[in-house]
TrEMBL record:
<protein>
    <submittedName>
        <fullName>Amidohydrolase</fullName>
    </submittedName>
</protein>
<dbReference type="InterPro" id="IPR011059">
    <property type="entry name" value="Metal-dep_hydrolase_composite"/>
</dbReference>
<dbReference type="InterPro" id="IPR013108">
    <property type="entry name" value="Amidohydro_3"/>
</dbReference>
<dbReference type="InterPro" id="IPR032466">
    <property type="entry name" value="Metal_Hydrolase"/>
</dbReference>
<feature type="domain" description="Amidohydrolase 3">
    <location>
        <begin position="98"/>
        <end position="590"/>
    </location>
</feature>
<keyword id="KW-0378">Hydrolase</keyword>
<dbReference type="InterPro" id="IPR033932">
    <property type="entry name" value="YtcJ-like"/>
</dbReference>
<dbReference type="Pfam" id="PF07969">
    <property type="entry name" value="Amidohydro_3"/>
</dbReference>
<dbReference type="InterPro" id="IPR006311">
    <property type="entry name" value="TAT_signal"/>
</dbReference>
<dbReference type="GO" id="GO:0016810">
    <property type="term" value="F:hydrolase activity, acting on carbon-nitrogen (but not peptide) bonds"/>
</dbReference>
Length: 628
């Protein structure tokens, strides 16, 4: 796909709304009802009507509550004009209609990845950061040489990640990097985040010499002559981190475009970017005004970890003006309540980890009671301001504290307020809590792709029962919880087909010879159910079920075409199906060129994700670190 695809003007996408329409649209978004412009049934075939785009020769999954299927879909003015039998839809093909052959594949509503750190996603990839998980030092050096050649600013930092000294014969040294790095400082973090390799320029900028005393818990590796080799371990990495500049606003803005390109190639047309700063919100707003934001973004503002932080954010926040809420909307705030239940053991559990330790809340406070009180106060402040709240909570004790806070803050009036709070990750939500969530329309935002990465690797940490139960999709759906799925990219690669596969099979990826096998047969869901967690239900979560998330007539024309029969194939094969076309607001933003599915980038992304989960670095934290 070309750069030009990003420069889509929303005027071309059916977004040329006058003020009245805009207000009507906003009201419809708020009410979650059918948006302005929905077509009355039958109007599509009125004499002389022709479509802008017709997609045929595929199985169309409307993904509405009735799970309607169809043979073709017609699009006009950025909306679904008709969906039905091929011979009926064909009547809408006029002289200027673009006709797209789905090649016998599957036509779905555009995918909604409901938890993606879009503002950090692109920063994981060149030119912002280079993958250096190579088998040899020579290959690693070649990557650095490429990065240096591509760098446009003299003396700019070259960043890389993923080297693995289990795979390499030894860690990379400055003497490897210096010959190719010119005046560019180079910093390469290893796969585990426990070590980094830097060149001489970086050592110099960090002021590290043969005489530097490492901070407690840190190692500055030295050669036989006592000179630093460039390898820094544990806390010694902080000496260099302190001098690596944060990405500039311009770099982040460009990385968002790169991230959107990557999402389009996955058929993703809507995302929630959780926990953004007001500055990042400004970047998104600028893109919308310039007509260059290629996906629909629901933003959760970062609420911090203390009530005063949240109050400060809300005091500084100004509602967006003159921006179509269907393209960019502040949905609410994101709170961060605990860690993750991996080997890092930072999720807060009712029953400790197998080794007897436990995680904790990460909310400010000197006692658990104080932390819970602060968490509940933050939820109350957000809810009183009329915000939806999404809270990162993975351990069962944390989830219970969060849901209790939601109930308290929602009060008796919750149905009218209709804020649709949710638990982000929701790994170990107890069954009783799922029941409470279902009764109060509290959603669960789960991570099938992370389940795939973890497989059975947590058996020695959580024990087999909790490992099986982690992300209880089946239980949650059976109890009536609104379940959404999300990649948490850049934690995993945003490959929703892999998520559908994992939700249906509960099979883990084999990573370093471990992790495979089924984890939680009882929590399997069907492929159609999994598809709803990526389309219709996140639209509900976005208060947008009336205008996106299904391919019914009148809905916005966000479409994902998959080259293969999503419902018919063995679920193991889902991950091998290519996304062939992506349409946003009626406009084709991605078309796959012929050739094999590009899985190498995805595989590399997953390996990195698995490694970072093991290091306990993941979730929303990773994104923050990438930005810092
Ligand atoms: Zn998280
Ligand atoms: Zn996250």
């Amino acid at each position: 796909m070309t750069r030009g695809d990003l420069d889509m003007g929303y005027a071309d996408m059916g977004y040329e709304l006058d003020r009245r329409q805009l207000l009507r649209g906003a009201a419809a978004v708020a009410a979650g009802t059918v948006a302005a412009g929905a077509l009355p049934a039958g109007a599509a075939y009125a004499h002389g009507t022709s479509a802008d785009l017709v997609i045929h020769n595929g199985r169309v999954l409307v993904l509405d509550e009735r799970f309607r299927t169809a043979e073709a879909v017609a699009i006009r003015g950025g909306r679904v004009l008709a969906v039905g039998r091929a011979r009926d839809v064909r009547r809408l093909v006029g002289r200027r209609t673009q006709v797209l052959d789905a090649g016998g594949g599957t036509v779905l509503p555009g995918i909604n990845d409901s938890h993606v750190h879009l503002n950090a996603l692109g920063l994981n990839f060149p030119p912002f950061s280079y993958g250096v998980d190579t088998a040899t030092i020579d290959e690693l050096v070649a990557v650095v040489r490429t990065a240096v050649e591509a760098a446009s600013v003299p003396g700019s930092w070259i960043r890389g990640q993923g080297w693995n000294d289990n795979r390499l014969p030894r860690p990379p040294r400055r003497t490897d990097l210096d010959p190719v790095s010119g005046d560019h400082p180079v910093v390469l973090t290893d796969f585990s985040f426990h070590a980094m390799a830097v060149n001489t320029a970086a050592l110099r900028l960090a002021g590290i010499t043969r005489d530097t005393v490492p901070p407690p818990g840190g190692v500055i590796e030295k050669d036989a002559d006592g000179e630093p080799t460039g390898v820094l371990r544990e806390t010694a990495q902080g000496l260099v981190r302190a001098v690596v500049p944060a990405f500039t606003a311009d770099e982040v803005a460009r990385s968002i475009d790169a991230g959107v390109t990557l999402l389009h190639a996955q058929g993703i047309t809507s995302v929630t970017d959780p926990g953004i700063t007001l500055a990042t919100l400004g970047l998104y707003a600028d893109k919308v005004r310039a007509g260059t934001l290629g996906v629909r973004v629901s933003a959760l503002l970062s609420g911090g970890t203390a009530p005063q932080q949240l109050r400060d954010v809300l005091a500084a926040y100004r509602p967006l003006r003159g921006i179509d809420p269907r393209v960019l909307r502040v949905a609410g705030v994101k709170l961060f309540a605990d860690g993750i239940p991996t080997a890092a053991k930072t999720a807060w559990l009712h029953e400790p980890y197998l080794d007897g330790t436990n995680g904790s809340l990460v909310i400010d406070g000197t006692t658990v009671a104080e932390q819970v009180a602060n968490l509940h106060e933050m939820i109350r402040v957000a809810v009183r301001a009329g915000f939806q709240v999404g809270t990162h909570a993975t351990g069962d004790a944390t989830i219970d504290a969060v849901v209790a806070g939601y109930l308290k803050a929602m009060g008796r009036d919750w149905r009218r307020a209709d804020l649709r709070h949710y638990v982000i990750h929701a790994d170990l939500t107890p069954r009783a809590t799922l029941r409470t969530m279902a009764r109060h329309d509290i959603g669960a935002n789960m991570n099938a792709t992370i389940k795939y990465l973890l497989g059975r690797t947590l058996d020695p940490v959580l024990g087999p029962a909790r490992t099986d139960y982690q992300w209880p999709y089946r239980s949650a759906l059976d109890l009536g919880v609104r379940v959404t799925s999300a990649s948490d990219a850049p934690v995993t690669y945003p490959n929703w087909l892999q998520g559908v596969m994992a939700a249906a099979l509960r099979e883990g990826m084999v990573f370093g010879g471990a992790g495979g096998g089924v984890a939680g047969e009882a929590e399997r869901i069907t492929v159609p159910e999994a598809l709803a967690t990526y389309t219709r239900t996140p639209a509900w979560q976005d208060h947008a079920g009336g205008w996106k998330g299904t391919l019914a007539e009148g809905m916005v024309a966000d479409v994902c075409v998959v080259g293969g029969d999503v419902l018919g194939v063995d679920p193991h094969e889902l991950v091998n199906l290519p996304v062939t076309t992506t349409v946003v607001g009626g406009r084709v933003v991605y078309e796959r060129s012929a050739g094999p599915v590009a899985t190498t980038e995805a595989a590399a992304g997953h390996e990195r994700g698995a490694a970072c989960l093991r290091a306990g670095k993941c979730c929303c934290r990773l994104a923050d670190e990438l930005r810092a």
